[in-house]
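Table S5 (text form). Sequence records supplied for joint modeling of the two-component complex.
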Amino acid sequence: MIELENVGYNYGGGELLDAVSVQLAPGSFHFLTGPSGAGKTTLLKLCYGALTPTSGRVRAFNMDVHGLDRDQMAYLRRRVGVVHQDCRFLDHLPVIENIALPLLVSGRELGHEEANLHELLNWVGLSERAHALPPELSGGERQRAALARSVILSPDVIIADEPTGNVDWEMSQRLLQLLVELNRMGKTILVATHDLSLIRAAKNQVQARVLRISNRQLQLAGADL
Amino acid sequence: MTDSKLHKLILGDTQANRVVPPTGFTAQLTLFVAGAMGFLAVFALALSMASGRLADRWASELARAATLRINAPAEQRVAQTEAALEILRQTPGVATARALSGEEQAALLAPWFGSSLPAGSLPLPQLIEVTADDPGYDPAGLRLRLQAEVPGAVLDDHTRWREPLVDAARSLRRLAWVSILLIGGATAAMITLAANAALAANAQVIEVLRLVGALDSYIAQAFIRRFTLRALTGAAAGVVLGMIGVWLMPEASDEGGFLTGLGFQGWGWLVPLLIPPLGALVAFAATTRAATKRLGELS
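The corresponding structure-token record, covering 524 residues in total, follows.
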């Protein structure tokens, strides 16, 4: 699905990542962990094309991400669902329209997707809040809305950056549950988190691999978590 | 552009429109400026068309008319007038030649000397009104012949004062056209500024849209439609007001001279209706350019 080959990245102030190679196989579940500022978000951005590597190659769906123009990049974004650390919404539109936004911008007929949309809202537990505006949502509700938005186009890969960053334990369990369910449906999942207990909880439910960034390198973490 | 795309662009996709938040105040400013520009364009157009008409009329009417003045002692005047009329009748290209009667000559002087002037007792030159045919006569040849046979005759074909007038009317028309171009340019500049402001103010919206996989063309369209429609509506309102203004101006009359002729005639009333679509076109081009440039700069 997504393949990083000897990827390096520097912000100008020095190397942040160096010689990182990883493959996200279809249907796999990966956690990405590491200390704050180690480059978790950067690595995720490299995966969905928001950043271009300073060295090495990123391939997504067998295309070199570097060679994509803006329109091809937009098409790539439709195939990769991203849940950002700070979920951004269109604050003037209610939650339900924000979740349906990917459908709208990709020119799908909203009428046909009505049932799916409501099912999805129900799945993330936001049916009651469908007509609230994004600024009225709590942190957990925002994260769930962002997750719903990222999966509405039924992407093959879902990338989540600290999805449980500012929600309580119960809510993070619930978000994890949703991600696990998506993985069981065959989606490739990559979740960046510094929350080790979340990873432990996931390991009971799913075959998850843990990638750890340390010293600019990516390592496959052992079972000692 | 396919039909469905064009249809979408004009009628809009109400869903897609809502993606960019409404902006009350800037929208009204854009409408106002487009309206003001439409209004001014109507006047510039009226001026250009009126001065164009005037230039054409002066150029053609005055070119056709000439005056022959017989300055001769009273006892020879009648004979010389007869001789001159005879020559004019023989000249090819002269349609009519007619000696003005004493009353007519007095009427010409009346605005300056009043109607109680004893015109008969004054040694006034005899005037002959000459109207040229199409094609006209050769003034130089006519002058030579008159000089030989009617020494007191002076042919005035109005060239001397016609040319500066026609020139003036033509430069007035040129100025009006320059004004119309400037109005178009100012509209484009204003729409570009407004579009850039809107794009900057909606940076977060654009970011979210890119994030969920919107194409640049989709994002740009939301802005382009908005500004094109605003320019169209504003200009239409301005043009209607401007046309009412022109319509309320006094009818063209001899007393009012040039100024009262300012306006549209016949089919000319349809020309200002082109202003709103042209304004919309200008807005479309300006917003497209601004949006393409701006979106290209984003990551």
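Note: The longest strand of chain A covers residues 15-24.
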